[in-house]
Amino acid sequence: MSEWAYVALGSNLGGREAHLAFARQRLGELPETELVAASAIEETDPIGPVPQGPYLNQMVLLRTGLSPQALLDACHVIERARGRERRERWGPRTLDLDLVRYDDVAIETPDLVVPHPEVGRRPFWQRELEELIPHACS
């Protein structure tokens, strides 16, 4: 059985477009996973108290047989492959992958909250979801 998963991609260090392209490719290569659609890429101001440059953001729609936790773990591996170091909350990053939604599932564990708790506070995520949701209906 496979589920619809929405993963947000963000980057504000180095070759931002290349980091997003790498993430799209690697997400599409995950076992039991197909990258169905990708939203437009948009530049946004950083969120949080840490001074830093603007982000490129994008969201992808996956059809996956991976569990939410397995998908999140795979996202962390992809981030690390692009040099992501988790040092400072809200800090700059080469690549940030967030599991925003996983079908209609609600999860709350110490490691994973779905839907993502920030989804209602990030207008760019709302726009990206609206762009992708029709692809999950076809």
By DSSP, the count of extended strands is 7
The assembly state of the depicted protein chains is single chain
Question: How large, in whole angstroms, is the Cα Rg?
Answer: 14 Å
- Overall pLDDT, averaged? 92
Named at the architecture level, the CATH assignment is 2-Layer Sandwich
Residue windows where pLDDT falls under 50 for at least 5 positions:
none
Q: Determine the N-to-C terminus distance.
A: 17 Å
Q: What is the percentage of strand-forming residues?
A: 25-35%
CATH class: Alpha Beta
CATH topology: Alpha-Beta Plaits
Within CATH, the superfamily carries the name 7,8-Dihydro-6-hydroxymethylpterin-pyrophosphokinase HPPK
Order of helices and strands: EHEEEHEEEH
The number of domains is 1
Helix content: 25-40%
Largest sheet: 5 strands, antiparallel
Structural class: alpha+beta
From the spread of the alpha carbons, the general shape counts as globular
Question: What is the number of helical segments per DSSP (H or I, 4+ residues)?
Answer: 3
